[in-house]
């Protein structure tokens, strides 16, 4: 076994039914339903113009500044997959640009996450292909390796295993473990529905705010006499 320079088979991944269900649920609601304990870090931002990223993860562990394994991940990706690259958050060299994005679109990849930098930011930013990254630089990548594909990775303390659900919107990126997809969805959907009801109540002037004073009182807040 060549630890640090290998490609493993993907053993499992969330199916298309869950992908479509999650597409309509905001990341913030999913995060709340996971007790706000999971996040890829505020530095991961959407580099594209518009669009939700959602799909099962192909994970890539790359040497900072090197995109050889990312290229191979693109070659083996199936339509609907999300390629998630942990490149250590290094911003010295871009790992992807407009040509690789064009190839990803042609292959039907659902999106790409780079814990590192991109380039051709104007072209990518004008498009709707979901791409999250931590920065931008004009300096291109090396293609020497090593690296690993379909191994557990971590971004900002968030562990992502091959086949886990990855979802991102304007608020950031989140991973839902394969075994928790159904439970998290039920909680997130209920949270989203409750918030939509509350927005309706606000619009109608019927939003109950008594909880604020009650909470302050219970916590011993002092008020003017």
UniProtKB/TrEMBL annotation:
InterPro entries: RraA/RraA-like (IPR005493), RraA/RraA-like_sf (IPR036704). Pfam families: RraA-like. Its cofactor is a divalent metal cation. Keywords: Lyase, Metal-binding. This is Putative 4-hydroxy-4-methyl-2-oxoglutarate aldolase. It comes from Pseudomonas lutea. Signal peptide: none annotated.
């Amino acid at each position: 076994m060549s630890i640090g320079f290998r490609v493993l088979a993907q053993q499992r991944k969330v199916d298309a039914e869950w992908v479509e269900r999650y597409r309509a649920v905001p990341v913030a609601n999913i995060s709340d339903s996971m007790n706000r304990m999971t996040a890829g870090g505020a530095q991961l931002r959407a580099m594209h113009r518009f669009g939700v990223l959602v799909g099962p993860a192909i994970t890539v562990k790359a040497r900072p500044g090197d995109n050889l394994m990312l290229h191979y991940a693109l070659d083996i990706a199936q339509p609907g997959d999300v390629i998630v690259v942990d490149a250590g958050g290094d911003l010295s060299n871009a790992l992807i640009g407009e040509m690789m994005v064009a190839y990803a679109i042609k292959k039907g990849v659902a999106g790409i996450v780079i814990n590192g930098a991109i380039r051709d930011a104007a072209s990518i930013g004008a498009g709707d292909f979901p791409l999250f990254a931590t920065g931008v630089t004009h300096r291109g990548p090396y293609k020497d390796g090593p690296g690993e594909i379909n191994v557990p990775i971590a971004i900002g303390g968030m562990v992502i295993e091959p086949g886990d659900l990855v979802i991102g919107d304007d608020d950031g990126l989140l991973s839902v473990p394969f075994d928790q997809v159904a439970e998290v969805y039920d909680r997130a959907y209920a949270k989203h529905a409750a918030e939509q009801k509350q927005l309706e109540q606000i619009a109608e002037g019927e939003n109950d705010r008594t909880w604020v004073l009650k909470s302050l009182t219970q916590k011993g807040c002092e008020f003017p006499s």
